[in-house]
Amino acid sequence: MIMKIIRNSIAFLSSMLLAASTSISAYCQTSNHFPIEDAIQTKEAEHHKDFNPEVFKKKFETYITKEAALTPQEAAIVLPLFHEMKTQQRNIQGIIHRACKRANEPSLSEKDAAIIFKEVIRLQKQSNNLETAYYERMAKVVSKQKVLHIMKAEHQFSRYIFRKIAAQK
């Protein structure tokens, strides 16, 4: 029973990490009205050649700034905090991914799996706590209403990317 839960958790985490890692490159293949068309260099190019991280970051920031109605001064403070938070969360997700890869080892004992499982749960909580702390820091700079708009805009942006990937399959 526990192994089934662990396998399901690992499968879920792996699929989420795979979706996140492929979302940016797949998103950049499609030219559309959403704020990324400038990041596309050629449709024939390979995924990694299509993506321009600086242009993507700029388009993302423009979208967040517009949707959350941030002033230039607010954006100058909040967006670096947002990027710092996401960088730290990506680092944590990388650790989780590497830990979950160990589940495929045939010599993995139940005791080792339990240790990995606890570590993954701890890291997920750490990521959530990190996000909460950063949103609270942002709320000291801008109103809580604007922080909610930032959260909503980031969610919309991510869902749009995910839908684009799903539509391509």
Task: Write a structural description.
- The chain is an all-alpha fold.
- The protein has six helices and no strands.
- It has helices at 2-27, 47-50, 53-67, 72-101, 110-139, 144-168.
Summarize the structure.
By secondary structure, the chain is mainly alpha-helical. It is built from six helices and no strands. The two termini are 33 Å apart.
Radius of gyration: 18 Å
Report mean pLDDT, rounded to a whole number: 77
**Overall 3D shape:** globular
Strand content: under 5%
Give the helices and strands as they follow along the chain: HHHHHH
What fraction, in percent, of the residue positions are helical? over 70%
Sheet with the most strands? none
Uncertain segments of ≥5 residues (pLDDT<50)? 1-6, 10-46
**Cα end-to-end separation:** 33 Å
Structural class: mainly alpha
Number of H/I helices: 6
What secondary-structure arrangement, pairings included, does this model have?
Elements: H1 2-27, H2 47-50, H3 53-67, H4 72-101, H5 110-139, H6 144-168
Tags for this entry?
0% strand; globular; disordered N terminus; single chain; 169 residues; 6 helices; mainly alpha
